[in-house]
Amino acid sequence: MENIRAFLKRKDVIISAHRYGIDAMGAMAQGLFASLLIGTIIKTLGQQTGIAFLVTAGGYAAAVAGPAMAASIGYALHAPQLVLFSLIAVGGAANELGGAGGPLAVYLIAIAAAEIGKLVSKETKVDILVTPAVTILVGVGLSALCAPAIGAAASAVGSVIMWATELQPLLMGILVSVLVGMALTLPISSAAICAALGLTGLAGGAAVAGCCAQMVGFAVMSYKENGIGGLVSQGLGTSMLQMPNILRNPRTWIPPTLAAAITGPIATCLFHLEMNGPAVSSGMGTCGLVGQIGVYTGWVESGKVITAFDWAGMVLVCFILPAVLSVIFCEVLRKKGWIKEGDLKL
């Protein structure tokens, strides 16, 4: 047993929730952003401006989502070069065979292929043949065996959530908004979760609302402590910056979470805000305005007639209500002494 542990340590194979649940998943979200998400944005820009080159470029970027996710995961797992490059083929296979649940298939299979590839890396004199062959054969083999089932399971879970949100927009609007919003602030990837589940439609709209509530809420209610820099870094970056403060005083998390519980059902019940762009956009909130661009992309691609009511709903749910509600709740907690001066300082 000691020999096995020493071998795994030498190969940097660390079986832990942090390595797989945070590092790998966060990297997967970046891979999705650098391919499918930015590709969709570029393509939409090209469609709206009539620039064919942008449409073509965006299409190429979106087409390599699987390889980009797998390579990103391999990078996060410190895969050697031959393993890392071989994961490109693995990601393509897993994403294609996984269907609607492709991102989850890529996530699970890329981790397995990367770790096994690391185990054989530089262990033979013909490493240039053995390492890529093992990584690709393991990854593509697992894709053929497991990806369709993984994809079907993820798609089924996402479909149930979306069906339940259509059926009970008030209750599910609250649950989806709060849970996905909290996932965005936690050191895990809400974007990857939404992508893996294919979370779109009303449920996607609720997810956008929850993520915006966390980002805009923390940005505005901590303005006294952090100024314009904190406003931008949290409002257009990530509310994850507040995690150290949340660990020190969990009550600081109450205002944006309550705001999410309100804006979620407003999005689903009043404005019928739907995310019909890329599912990954559902978990991005106001990060680079990706959530809002995703909603707009969905409007355009579905041929929806965009009204002033639609724009008003997006602005209220994504910006105005999270800011106002979070500040109100925060001031109440400050008066109660639950949140003190400096508790939100980055």
Automatic annotation (TrEMBL):
The keyword Transferase does not apply. One of its GO terms (molecular function) is protein-N(PI)-phosphohistidine-sugar phosphotransferase activity. Keywords: Cell membrane, Membrane, Sugar transport, Transmembrane, Transmembrane helix, Transport. It is a multi-pass membrane protein. Residues 23-346 form the Phosphotransferase system EIIC domain. The keyword Transmembrane helix applies. GO terms for cellular component: plasma membrane. It is found in: Cell membrane. The chain crosses the membrane at residues 20-42, 48-68, 133-164, 170-195, 202-223, 253-273, 280-299, 311-330. GO terms for biological process: phosphoenolpyruvate-dependent sugar phosphotransferase system. InterPro entries: PTS_EIIC. This is PTS sugar transporter subunit IIC. It comes from Subdoligranulum variabile.
